Fold this sequence. Notes:
Blueprint: E1 2-9, H1 12-20, H2 32-44, H3 48-62, H4 73-90, H5 97-100, E2 103-111, H6 112-118, E3 125-129, H7 165-188, H8 193-196, E4 205-213, H9 214-224, H10 231-244, H11 249-256
Helix pairs in contact: 1-2, 2-11, 9-10, 9-11
Amino acid sequence: MKVEYENHYLTDNDVANYARLSFAKLAENFSDEQNASLIRFLARGMKSKDWEQLIRNMLDLGKIDYAAPKDSSMEKLNLQKAHDLAVYMRKIPEHWVPFGHPHISLRMEAPVPIARQLFKHKIGFVESEESRRYISSTPVLYVPDEFRAKPKDAKQGSGGAHHISDTWRKTYMEQANRAINVYEAMIADGVAPEQARFILPQGVEVHWALTGSLYAFANMYNQRADSHAQKESQMIAEQIDQIIAPLYPVSWAALTKGAY
């Protein structure tokens, strides 16, 4: 799996420029720190002093004694405070439009299921993927370093290495490569590529070009870098982070790392 840089459009300075357009002002008339401060404001959706107050409210909430008797009026009041704060945080209005102007184009390579997970991110993206209706080259098989065990306390995801990971890894490679060999035999015998591809395993890698706004990539990264996301998706997210962070250091840090 890999992600490669192809192109990008605009800079952090342009994000500030589009934000200042409402007031008919230009970023060039402000200092770098003033523009950076504006970008951080856009990402957090509030002034820095209001953000600091929100943090204090969270700290105060953490000091609440939750040892109150169950179903007591005090417990209900404490739970309501926690609920109200959680709802408020979910509804903080990001000023996302200025982050929608910059665009990045990347070349992506990942196994079919991971590509399909990433394709769920539709808003702000366009994809162009290679099609095995038209090509018949030998596909690359993705081979994980290890096979993970199913977690005992969750319906999805994975735990640590399976106790016979090496055995399953060997079996996976044998079965997948057998299917790839049959695919090549079908192609050699004149079977239409659009049908021969049906036999290919899910583990073969696909290639696609992905273009999206800075804001769209930040949303993708935030979801796929999360510890609950599939490990392979996390690996792709980290590569995206390594590429985009240097291109938009202020905006990307504000949108993904909470650098407020």
